[in-house]
Amino acid sequence: MSMTLGSVTTSTPMPDVAHRTLPAAFDAVLGRTPDAPLLYADDGTYTYAQAHDRALRIAGGMRALGVTAGDRVVLMLDN
After folding, report:
1. pLDDT tens digits for range 38-75
2. Is this model's pTM higher than 0.85 or not?
3. Which helix (H) or strand (E) segment is 11 a member of?
4. What angle is formed at CA 40 by the lines to CA 48 and CA 9, rounded to 5 degrees?
5. What span, in angstroms and rounded, lies between the C-alpha atoms of 15 and 22?
6. How many other CB atoms sit within 10 Å of the CB of residue 34?
7. What is the phi/psi pair of residue 8, to 5°?
8. Half-sphere exposure (CA, 13 Å, Cβ side) for 25?
9. CA torsion angle 31 74 21 57 (round to 10)
10. How far apart are CA 20 and CA 26, in angstroms?
């Protein structure tokens, strides 16, 4: 599977993200343009909103398994 990260083009200046964390920068784009493409993959294009929803589902599943803040987790992904 090949994937390419998207980019957002907007006529409205983005707030300075140089001093933000990656999650804060993601949230800024999510709040401004949730339907902007984030990831292009063999099976389709994924938006910031879709990535956010998926992250919330994964986090909820991990919480249901007893994972709490500060716990370390390992992700196993197919090549």
Report:
1. 988 888 999 999 999 999 999 999 999 999 999 999 98
2. no
3. none
4. 55
5. 13
6. 15
7. -110, 130
8. 10
9. 10
10. 10
